[in-house]
Amino acid sequence: MAAEVHFSPPEIPEPTLMENVLRYGLFFGAVFQLLCVLAIILPVSKSPKTDSDGLESKTWETVKKAKASAAQLSKKAKKESKKKR
């Protein structure tokens, strides 16, 4: 009645190269995604303004002025066309 039962672990084949590449690729992809999400969520302290910041604001101001002048020209053209009627 006291038969011996041998419990041996199941035989698991060694992972192939492709399975290893897939496993570690997914792992590093998940870590990269977490870093990207944390970079969006966590605020980054900004350094003092440099010369490049000044250039960017100047170009933005010139773009705004160009748009404003284009809008004024279109308004003038509309007024002139109404006057001709």
Automatic annotation (TrEMBL):
It is a single-pass membrane protein. It is found in: Membrane. Pfam families: UPF0239. This is Mannosidase beta like. Its main location: membrane. InterPro entries: UPF0239. It comes from the Eukaryota. The lineage of its organism: Eukaryota, Metazoa, Chordata, Craniata, Vertebrata. Keywords: Membrane, Transmembrane, Transmembrane helix. The chain crosses the membrane at residues 21-42. One of its GO terms (cellular component) is membrane. It comes from Meleagris gallopavo (Wild turkey). Belongs to the UPF0239 family.
